[in-house]
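Input/output pair, single chain:
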Amino acid sequence: MRKTIIVFVLFFVVGLLVACKANEKWEVVQTIDYTEIATWEPMETPVEDSGNGSVVETNETDGYVTIQAAADGWGGVQSGSITLDLSKNPLIMVRVYENPDGSKWGLKFLPDNPLEGHEWGFYLIEDNNFKWNKYGVVDVRDMLGETIIEAYGEKITGKLWLMAAGGPEAIVSVSEIKIVNTK
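Output:
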């Protein structure tokens, strides 16, 4: 199983590099480094005191911030409002410095003023154990799908939720998040 995931990630990264070379229009529209992530507030979920994790360390020597799950075993921190232009086929790249065995991490997008049933946001990167100073990458438009795009439009504003999961001691250390428009 692990070899399959590694092979998939390698093929995906090679595909991204080939696509990047073929499409010189790629543009990094936002880089959120660990020092900015360290200022993010605990997630605000529909259930009080659920999922509101915290920043537990900022390592300036190696350049990462560590986020710990909440007491209920999952959760993290949320960004301020950001706008994603889905007409530009954005990718979000999360550089994970470390995610210990037994811990997982994920990334969600919560629209500002979510429609009924969307109060928990949308997974962009589902809970996983990807680690070792590598990037987790997601095609946002593809992950959200046309139904969500029809509901919110091509430009969608909301917050990123960066989460640890797997128990109250679960952590994830992150170096940066990049938003890259591919069109």
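The two ends are 34 Å apart (CA to CA). Residues 2-22 form the longest helix (21 residues).
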